[in-house]
Every structure is written in structure tokens, then in C-alpha cells.
Amino acid sequence: MALLPDSATEPDGSATIRVLSYNIRSMRDDTAALARVITACAPDLVLLQEAPRFFRWRKKLARLAAASGQVILTGGGTAAGPAILCGLRATVERTEDILLPLTPGLHRRGFATAVVRFGGARLGVLSCHLSLQRQERYEQGGMLLDRLAGLGTEHAIAGGDLNERPDGPTFRRLAAGLTDCRTAAPWGGEFTSTPAEPHQRIDAIFATKGIEVLGCGVPLDQPGVREADLRAASDHLPVLAALRVPAS
């Protein structure tokens, strides 16, 4: 299988970037394995779900960022779990964490969002972890589309744990308004849950029209990513995408 292209900034201002989306189960598993997986994927942006959000959550997230060659961009406890890390190529314009309406008896959900630049490419970014409850999840899908449009950028991406397969109504709602990167350019593995027995795709990366998807999938054959680390790092497998973002 061909490797995904490396990150690059072109003379015309466009940028090729690597985006990793990963549910890390509050770092309750092997954090050294987790850091090795993230490092081996060489991402420019890391969209996390179930980042630490309780006792000393900032310190835990900072340790993961440092161990994987990233810095904290936004999110964590302030977004009820979603977070965004980034490499030093990113120029940060602004960040905002959003808490979604709370349904009594269900977990609080939120979005971690940012606007960043790579060369002449300006990009809106959103990390999400949608509800386990079908109707609430569908409503959150609409909020995601609204929030992404409200970032005020021509190009944007969203990634996360959707808690739903591609044939579900919320997944279809997102794929109708955005490009499902895995469908556009399949690469690597398809299924993200569970690492021990992958059988369903419930994690995804989406992009707005105009962003070219160069490849997207579970980085099973990415150099440096070991199966043992994928099994030890979390109860989800990560999704890695290479994207070409036009100059803004």
C-alpha cells in the first residue's frame, strides 16, 4: 500500500496536511503506546475525543502532547472531552470550546474548534464526540454543520467519534453536507472499533468541498505504527487523512 504524502507547503500557498482523529478513552490505557502511535502518524492536527476532563486534566493532556511532538491547541475539560493538538507548522488564529445542550441523564457533549493557517491555507477545525442517543446525536450533527459554517473559513474539517455507522441518519446527514474522507479516498484500514476485533466504522474525518482528499483510513501500515500499540493505546483505532487545502 502506498504511503500518504508528507506535509508540505506549496509555492501557490496551498498546503498538504495530515490530520489524525483519535478517541483516546481518557488516557486510561497505555499512554506510551498512544504517544508512539500519534508520533508515527506525523500529524499536523490531532482531533481527540475522550481527552482527560477531570482531575488534573490539563497536565495529562500536556504530557501526551509533549510525548507525541505536539502542543495543545484547545479543548479537553472545557469542551467536555474533545480536544485539538497541533504541530508547530500551524499558525493559530483563534480557538473556541463549545458546550452543547445537556439532556438530563446523558453525558455532557461539546465541540473543540479552531481556525489555523498552514502557509497560505486557512482552515477551520472541529473535533467532536456525538451522543449515544439517536435523536440527540442527530441534533448534534446539525449543530456541527452550523458551527463549522460559522467558523467563517472557506475550508474546514471535522473529525471525531460519531457513535454511528455510515448507514446511520446522522452520519448520512454529515456526509450529505461534507466530504466523507474515507469514502473519497480509501487508504489503510476501514473499521475503527474495536482494536481487538475491528468490525465497524464509527470514527470519521469530514472536509468541506474544495479540499482534496489524498487518502484516509486507519493507519495499519503506516511506518512506526505497530499493531500491539494500536491494541494497547485505546478502545478505538485512529483515523489518519492526508488533505490538500487550497490557499485562501
- In quaternary terms, these chains amount to single chain
Helix/strand order, N-terminal first:
EEHEHEEEEEHEHEHEEHE
**Largest sheet composition:** 7 strands, mixed
Strand content: 25-35%
Rounded radius of gyration (Å): 16 Å
Helix content: 10-25%
Mean pLDDT: 97
Assign the structural class, choosing from mainly alpha, mainly beta, alpha/beta, alpha+beta, or little secondary structure.
Answer: alpha+beta
What is the strand tally?
Answer: 13
Distance between the termini: 32 Å
- What ranges have pLDDT less than 50 throughout 5 or more consecutive residues? none
Q: Outline, from the CA principal axes?
A: globular
Number of helices: 6
Domain Endonuclease/exonuclease/phosphatase: 20-236
Cofactor: Mg(2+); Mn(2+)
Protein name: Endonuclease/exonuclease/phosphatase family protein
Pfam families: Exo_endo_phos
Protein architecture, described:
InterPro entries: Endo/exonu/phosph_ase_sf (IPR036691), Endo/exonuclease/phosphatase (IPR005135), TDP2-like (IPR051547). The chain has 248 residues and is an alpha+beta fold. The strands form 2 sheets. Strands 1, 2, 3, 4, 5, 12 and 13 form a 7-stranded mixed sheet that branches. It has a 6-stranded mixed sheet with strand order 6-7-8-9-11-10. The longest helix has 17 residues. The two termini are 32 Å apart.
